[in-house]
Amino acid sequence: MKHINKLFQPATCLAIFRLLPSLSKFFITSMIFNEKPVVVRDFDRWVKPNGKKELVEALRSIKSLHLLKENNGIAILNPVFRKSFKNVLTGAEVGNS
User: Fold this and answer.
1) Which three-class secondary structure string do you get for the chain?
2) Could you report the per-residue pLDDT of 7-45, keeping only the tens digit for each?
């Protein structure tokens, strides 16, 4: 996991985000500034009943890139990705990309 975290520089985070499916982007942007834990079951509430296939694909894509992990039913954004991507969105630490 340490090797993957080294890839999460601000510019890399932005590039990864741009390649994600729309629903994955929605989940990340919904969680990036929210410091409260998100219960994995809550993702079902964020998606219409006919969007379950897209939900599964969105979660699979962000988990496979190690952007999100589940721990005891709680969804946790990778803290290195969160910090770097938050810096990209807010313009903090611009010179680090």
Assistant:
1) CHHHHHHCCHHHHHHHHHHCCHHHHHHHHHHHCCCCCEECCHHHHCCCHHHHHHHHHHHHHHHHCCCEEEECCEEEECHHHHHHHHHHHHCCCHHHC
2) 788 889 999 999 999 999 999 999 999 988 899 999 999
Q: How far apart are CA 46 and CA 5, in angstroms?
A: 28
Residue 22 in tokens: 């729309």
Contact present, 92 and 59 (Cβ < 8 Å) = no
CA atoms of 86 and 80, how far apart (whole Å): 10
**In one letter, which amino acid is 31?**
M
Task: Enter the pTM of the model.
Answer: 0.84
State the Cα–Cα distance between residues 4 and 65, nearest whole angstrom: 9
Enter the tokens of residue 89: 């969105």
